[in-house]
Amino acid sequence: MTAWIALFAVTVLFTLAVRHGRSTEPRLPPGYDGDRQLAELHALTSAAMTAPLP
């Protein structure tokens, strides 16, 4: 039981450390939208899959 408590405590501390470290990173510049970029990538790969072979 003590091992589970220790594992939980380490997990919580690690999560807090990771979340706290992100606040010092600069924000992404305008135009960097993950959803938009993912949609563009999906469109590119879909177009490549439907294109006829040479």
Q: Which features would summarize this protein structure in a list?
A:
elongated; single chain; 2 helices; mainly alpha; 54 residues
Would you mind describing this structure in some detail?
With 54 residues, this protein is an all-alpha fold. It is elongated, with a radius of gyration of 21 Å.
**Spatial extent as radius of gyration:** 21 Å
What's the oligomerization state?
Answer: single chain
Structural class: mainly alpha
Count of DSSP helices? Answer: 2
H-E string: HH
Major sheet, described briefly?
A: none
What is the percentage of strand-forming residues? Answer: under 5%
Name the helicity range: over 70%
Overall geometry: elongated
Q: Low-confidence spans: pLDDT under 50, at least 5 residues?
A: none
Distance between the termini: 64 Å
Describe what is shown at a glance.
Helices cover 70% and strands 0% of the residues.
List the SSEs and their pairings.
Blueprint: H1 2-22, H2 34-50
